[in-house]
Amino acid sequence: MMRIGNSPSQLTETELRVRAVLNEWDPIGVRDGADNGPVDEYDDLIQPIIDAASSGASSAELAAGLQNVLTTDYGLPSPGSCEGVSTTLLNVLATD
Predict the structure, then answer these.
(1) Entry pTM
(2) CA 79 to CA 74: how far, in whole Å?
(3) What region, left, alpha or beta, does residue 37 occupy, with left being phi > 0 and alpha being psi -120 to 50 degrees?
(4) In the chain, pLDDT over 90 holds for what percent of residues?
(5) Is the separation of the CB atoms in 82 and 70 below 8 Å?
(6) pLDDT computed for residue 63 by the predictor
(7) Is the pLDDT reported for residue 10 higher than 90?
(8) Distance of alpha carbon 32 from alpha carbon 13, whole angstroms
C-alpha cells in the first residue's frame, strides 16, 4: 500500500520530473491551473511513487495507490484521473 513520505529537501532530476507531473495534475486544486501556488504541495508523494514504480507497479496499481492516499491522507472524496496520471508518471520514470 502506498503511504505518503517525507518531502525531499533537495530534489534529483527524476524527483523534479515527478513533481512537475504532480503539479500539473494538481488533484486538490492549489495551483489553480497556473504557475502560482506552492510548488512543494505534493512532494510527500514523490518517493512513494518512485518506490512503487521501482517495484514494478502497473499503472492500475499505482492509480489505486494514489486513489488511496488522496482519499485517506488528503481527505478527497473521489479524486479523478488517477489512472491517467499514473500512466504519465510511469512513462516519466521509464526514461531514467
Answers:
(1) 0.85
(2) 10
(3) left
(4) 54
(5) yes
(6) 94
(7) no
(8) 25
Residue that is written with C-alpha cell 502506498 in the block: 2
CA proximity to 82, closest of 54, 58, 55: 58
Biggest alpha carbon distance in the chain? 34
pLDDT of residue 45: 94
- Residue 93 and residue 53 in contact, taking contact as beta carbons nearer than 8 Å: yes
Res 4 pLDDT > 80: no
Cα 29 to Cα 25, 34, 45, 46, 52: the distances in Å are 9, 10, 16, 18, 24
Q: What is the mean pLDDT of the chain?
A: 86
Burial-class residue 61 by CB neighbours within 10 Å (0-12, 13-18, 19+). Answer: middle
The predicted pLDDT at position 6 comes to: 57
Neighbours of 80 (CB within 10 A): 12
